[in-house]
Amino acid sequence: MSAIDSALLDDIREVNLSYLMLAQRLLRENPAAGMFRLGFGGDVAEIILNLSPAQIVKLASSNSVLCAFRLNDAQLLTSLTQEVLGGVLQQAHSTILMSRQEAVSA
Fold first, then answer.
1. What is the mean pLDDT of residues 46-61?
2. The domain at 1-68 falls in which architecture?
3. CA–CA distances in Å: residue 11 to residues 18, 85, 102
4. 36: part of which helix (H) or strand (E)?
5. CB-neighbour burial class of residue 16 (10 A; exposed 0-12, middle 13-18, buried 19+)
6. What is the SS3 string spanning 37-106?
7. Quick check: 28 and 45 in contact, CB under 8 A?
């Protein structure tokens, strides 16, 4: 494996670990808001919440990115990147559009 490939895999593992730790934190602080922000259903949220630190490290060691890019709708992504409303109104509009994305369940 080349040094570039190795560095990319290390970066993926780091992203995975950060994502899983953030997910647990969001879900612990406010389960409903965490599930909304992460796009998780209740079953997935419960599993993530119950992972031990060792399980998180093991899961994060995957060679694949564990988090998914939820903005897979080109029209939605384009509308969120346009500065048509500005400031707080733009943020509220983005939140409304993102809420239309369905949560993923186990």
1. 97
2. Orthogonal Bundle (1.10)
3. 11, 35, 28
4. helix 31-38
5. buried
6. HHCECHHHHHHHHCCCHHHHHHHHCCCCCCCCCCCCCHHHHHHHHCCCCCHHHHHHHHHHHHHCCCCECC
7. no
Which is more confidently placed, 57 or 91? 57
Return the H-helix or E-strand segment holding 33: helix 31-38
**What is the residue-averaged pLDDT of the chain?**
84
* Interacting residues of 68 by C-beta distance below 8 A, sequence separation 6+: 39, 104
**Confidence (pTM):** 0.72
Give me the residue spans of the domains in the chain: 1-68, 69-101
The whole-number average pLDDT for the span 68-86 is 69
Q: Using alpha carbons, select from 10, 62, 75, 66 the residue that is nearest to residue 38.
A: 66
